[in-house]
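Task: complex structure prediction.
Instruction: return structure tokens for all chains below.
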Amino acid sequence: ETGVTQTPRHLVMGMTNKKSLKCEQHLGHNAMYWYKQSAKKPLELMFVYNFKEQTENNSVPSRFSPECPNSSHLFLHLHTLQPEDSALYLCASSQDFRLTAASYEQYFGPGTRLTVT
Amino acid sequence: AQSVTQLDSHVSVSEGTPVLLRCNYSSSYSPSLFWYVQHPNKGLQLLLKYTSAATLVKGINGFEAEFKKSETSFHLTKPSAHMSDAAEYFCVVSDQENQGGKLIFGQGTELSVKP
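Output:
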């Protein structure tokens, strides 16, 4: 399998559930990203991992917990979510977060459509 | 701080007619600019990028964009629309004030193509 894959593609969960989103990249990249895409709003960067170290946390609520066990895998653990957390969650990867934009491209997965009931 | 503004939330064209998706940016630095496309139920795909080389940038699927510093614009064009071009398009600037890896996305333009 090539590129960036995400599972599950769709997820419905209650506010008291705990679930995890998984992202895997087969591109040999060292940086991985979680984005949130809500209707009528720009993509919001949530977390960045570079060489397995978290380098960015854009004031994301603690009910979202990322995990990056290696450069190829990224998880987003979810617990006690709110209905406003319903969105498309996109994972992306790139060669190295520290490189300038001139030197890299971010590759995106298809996303997980999350609905919180 | 860097920012991008996509001037149209929705554009509708007929198949075979030209496409113009407008984007203005704000940046204190020499920016890197991108256009990404997102088809329904798919992730974002890079169409093209400007990184201070040629001001006219050619991308995939016949799209191109011109960087105009005097107008702070980076509009996306295509001479002849195809039905498969129907998608959401995002203009993006890199946050070079902080770190190169951070991308700042516009709100998106939905392109509809009528037969």
